[in-house]
Design brief:
Blueprint (H helix, E strand, L loop, with lengths): L3 E3 L5 E3 L81 E5 L2 E7 L6 E4 L65
Length: 184
C-alpha cells in the first residue's frame, strides 16, 4: 500500500515518510518501534517531575561521547541507589576531585610518578574524623605535622621517631592506675 488513509474513526495511516514543517502538537502518548533523533539538541518539559526510561530498561547508557556531564542544580540531593564504580583517567592530577568551589576536600591524583590521595586544603583546614571502633592501618611511613591524638590504643609496630622542632615537647600523660611501660 502507498499513500495516506484516514478511517472514519480518525485513524491516519501513512505508508511513506512523514515530514512536518511546522510545530507538531500531539496530546496523546507517542510510541515508536524505531529510534528518536533529536537533532535540535533539547528534550524539555513544563512538568516539575519527569521520568526517563523508568521501567523495563535494565542497562542505561547516557552520553558515551560526552566530555563534560552536568547533572542537577547547585542545591538539592543526587541519589545513586546502586553500587558506584568510578573509572578515573590515567595521568591526571585531578582524576577525582570532591570540592566546595575551589576548596578540595578529597583529591585523587593519577599523575604518573605522583599518584596520591589528598584530604583537605590549606584555606579552610577541614577536620576529618574516622568514626567507629574499627582499626585504621597505615602501611607505609606516616608523618604528622600537627597534633596526633589517639583516643584508643595506639600501636606503632615499626620504627617510631619523635623529633619535636624548636621548643616543642613530647608529653605522655597517664592517670593513677595506668603505667608507662618500656619492654625489651
Amino acid at each position: 500500500d502507498t499513500g495516506i488513509t484516514v478511517s472514519n474513526a480518525g485513524t491516519i495511516q501513512a505508508n511513506g515518510n512523514l515530514t512536518v514543517d511546522g510545530t507538531s502538537q500531539l496530546t496523546g502518548n507517542v510510541t515508536t518501534t524505531g529510534d528518536i533523533a533529536v537533532n535540535g539538541g533539547d528534550i524539555t518539559t513544563n512538568s516539575t517531575t519527569a521520568n526517563i526510561f523508568n521501567g523495563t530498561a535494565t542497562t542505561l547508557n547516557i552520553g558515551a561521547d560526552a566530555t563534560t556531564v552536568a547533572l542537577g542544580d547547585g542545591a538539592g540531593t543526587t541519589t545513586l541507589n546502586n553500587n558506584l564504580a568510578v573509572n578515573v583517567q590515567d595521568n591526571n592530577a585531578d582524576a577525582l576531585d570532591i570540592q566546595q568551589g575551589t576548596d578540595n576536600y578529597l583529591n585523587i591524583s593519577t599523575a604518573n610518578g605522583a599518584e596520591a590521595i589528598a584530604f583537605g586544603n590549606a584555606s579552610t583546614n577541614p577536620t576529618y574524623t574516622f568514626n567507629g571502633t574499627g582499626a585504621t592501618t597505615f602501611g607505609g611511613a606516616t608523618t604528622s605535622t600537627g597534633t596526633l591524638t589517639a583516643s584508643n590504643a595506639f600501636a606503632a609496630n615499626g620504627a617510631s621517631t619523635f623529633n619535636p622542632a624548636g621548643t616543642a615537647d613530647v608529653t605522655i600523660t597517664s592517670d593513677t592506675d595506668s603505667r608507662f611501660i618500656l619492654n625489651g
